[in-house]
Amino acid sequence: MARASLLSQDWMKFSSYKERLLGLSFGLLSTRHHDLSYNLTWRTLTDPSRLASASIRRQLGHNLLSALKYTYKIDQRDSHIRPTKGYAFLSSSQVGGLWDNKGLNFFRQEFDVRGALPFGFWNAALNVGVGAGVVLPLARGFMNSSTPVTDRFNLGGHSSPVCSLGGISSLLGFRTRGVGPTEARRLVPGESEDGSAAVPGRDYLGGDLAVSAFADLSFDLPLKVFRDAGIHGHAFLTAGNLVKLSEGQYKNFSLDEFRRSLGVVLELALFCRLNCSGSR
Fold first, then answer.
1. For residue range 257-275, what is the model confidence (pLDDT) as tens digits?
2. pTM to 2 decimals?
3. Phi (first) and psi of residue 116, to 5 degrees
4. Which membrane topology term applies here (predicted)?
5. For position 123, which CATH number holds?
6. Domain that holds residue 131
């Protein structure tokens, strides 16, 4: 299978860049558990505001990404939206820079493990999951090189962690890309009314090492009108963190500090079975 795509994404609010991807994807192998694909993508990063931080500015421009990706997946859950029993596992490996493109040589590995345990009353079930990922540059003196900002991990947003198998991105309670390293944007004098320098804000840079986990208790509500409408309750706990390892930052990595700085959220929510976005 071959597929051509054109994708534009606006990350100006969070990371001061816009991304445009023109690519070809070739499916080399696709079975129930295995998927192997090759992607050739012309990637363009721009900053129309000219306010991006130094780390973002260094990665602006055009690049050709040539990458091979392999995914192994097992999903024995009874539902992808509201699982009540079963388990799931996903491993995704990607090697970028097969044509030795500067700045786009990297190795990315993700793992995601899920399990659901029924309780036998009110259609209640406990879902737990752990995800982890790492992206490393592939170059001479690789730990002092930089990883592509678009291929790093980001945490935050409002998507349900129960639905997103294989995505280390959801961390309910935090704004989109709201966790991890940041850097001040360019300071521009004269932007405020009195002619002084305006507060520049910060760019979220993403991380090279990410860990996330969740525990979710779903249950039917006692009122029939809610059950007929497909509305059910959730009580969930989410936690996650990410750090930067490239550009020599691995020297500053501390496991104790990584554990102490975990973002943790505990909430009670109402969800509809028709979608995974929910309302709280």
1. 777 777 777 666 656 554 4
2. 0.82
3. -130, 135
4. Multi-pass membrane protein
5. 2.40.160.50
6. 78-184+203-272
